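Co-fold these.
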Amino acid sequence: MTDLTFLPDRTALEAVGLGVKYRRRGWALRDCAFRLPAGRVCALVGPNGAGKSTLLALAAGLRRPDAGRLRVFGGEPADPGVRPRVAYVGQDKPLYPSFTVADTFRMGHELNPGRWDQGVAERLVRAGDIPLDARVGTLSGGQRTRVALALALGKRPGLLLLDEPMSDLDPLVRHEMMAALMAEAAERATTVVLASHVLTELEGACDYLLMVADGRVRLAGEVEDLLSAHRLVMGRYEGEGVPREFATHQVVEARARGRQFTALLRTDGPVAGDWQVSEPSLEEMVLAHLRAPAAPALIAPSAEPRPGFRREVEAA
Amino acid sequence: MTAVTGHHHEQRTTTGSPAAETMRQQEGERWPWLPRPRGAAWLVLRQHRTTAWIALGLLAALLVELVWLRFTMAGYIDRHGLRDACDVSGADCAVERMAAVEHFRSVYGDLLHYSGLFLGYLPLLAGLFVAGPMVARELETGTYRMAWTQAVSPARWLAAKLAVPVVAVLGGVSLLTAARTWAWSVVPASLLPGERWHSVFDTIGPLPVARCLLAVAAGALVGLLVRRTVGAMAVTLVASGVLEWLIGTLRDSGLVAPVTELSKDMPGLILGPGDWVVERGLITPDGGRVPEPGCKVGITPEQCVTQHDALGWYLDYHPASHLWELQWAEAGLTAAAAVALAAAALAYVRRAYP
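Predicted complex below.
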């Protein structure tokens, strides 16, 4: 992240006590508190049904929370000053099938007065060789994704919310599209929240991480900070339970395969003993947390909601 | 990118990027004097472009037909002296006049009747369309999420979904009902017994407009609540029936006070050709009313009176002179119900969505 796009004084997303309850399934999100500074590309990860889509729908102003508050650029997601600055691409990428690509962009122009950038939108579909007069209903899944992304980027959003957008693309196109997306986002310092299962596609693209599981925030913060707080430890170990040297650290997850022992630790100082210690990759850290739902949450200081906002919500 | 906002053609003629060029072409340079829909209204019209063109074509055809019908009927009536038509079954009718009356009924009478049928079912069609394809389908297929995550709030989205059909109804149905009423009014009441004012009450005057407005509002509310295309249309079908019945009941319960006639003998249910009977029944000595007393078959009206210890019969009816008073009263009531349902739909969206 360059200094140009780093905007420490601005907050894209901020939540305190956030909860959403569905009539049948119960709480989809519960007591979530986090902050996402503006200008970041944030990976939103978690198992299926963890509340990722619900969180994005809240931020997009599609539904109201049942508890707590979520603020986007300091306002309610539905504020007339906020809604125009947020773009959203849903999991199933809903578009009007009877519209042509040109009609879809015309809609972007009509519904986003003063913001719409036809050039950005057209560039993205041209790169995918999609004719403007093609009907959306006749496009392939990947082409439709491209049109949906073009519609979102044409809005020139300050915050771009993407719910598993690349799931139906082949790896090559996914890579190309991710690059195009990141280039557009970097150019305007757009904050991006990208919900995804494909952890490898997030590595390198994202500098912020928000992990939810069971409706709660489990990890939040700069990817760098989170990674440096963890250590992957490997070695031979035949004893019962967890090695004694780990007592001063927090064990997120430990696995033994034969005599080979692997653990992810939240370290407090160097690890003693004859262990091979390394910084985990994003994927290793996330997977370990997915496998260990009981591990305590880790919220980096930059991802803590500001005390003022917390007091405001608690007073209400 | 400056040209994207350039839908005012006169302002920007120099910026010539290809993107702006396509945009300008889409805007359409034909008929520059025509007001162009913007924003969410543009979206609603584009979504239902085919339906809008079909409706417009149908409207034009029906208007031409009704105007032609009016002049042709007037000419025929004058030529054959049918201004004061005789009763076809009566003996006073000359044979050649009878033939003319028969011809008039089978040709022009049917045409006029069909236009009435169309106007009678138009509110239901409008309600079904708004409930299903316009509102519920977007909620069912999820496309509403695309619309709401542009700069348009759910409330404004719904307002456009209401405004476009309302404008269409106010423009189109007003013209249509005016043309039909104009054509209908040239026919003497006795010439077409099926087109007497109380038989065609729902399909003349301002009432079709009000009924269509009510159907649009009810359809929008049902579509929002049911959220399934087919389900919403089914519920709208039932709801229209209920609303129809409710408003009919309110009308008959004295929206405009009917004329009451008292008699010793049981009055017939068919008075003069221009009278609309609301209710018949018995009057008791304490002034109470027994509407449609259930006297068994084989009991004479006289026995019926003594059975109920009644003084005699009453008959409530609207004479032909009540037509416009009754029309405007029911249209007003219907329009008020439409406003209430539209407000309910908007309030629901505001409450249920951010």
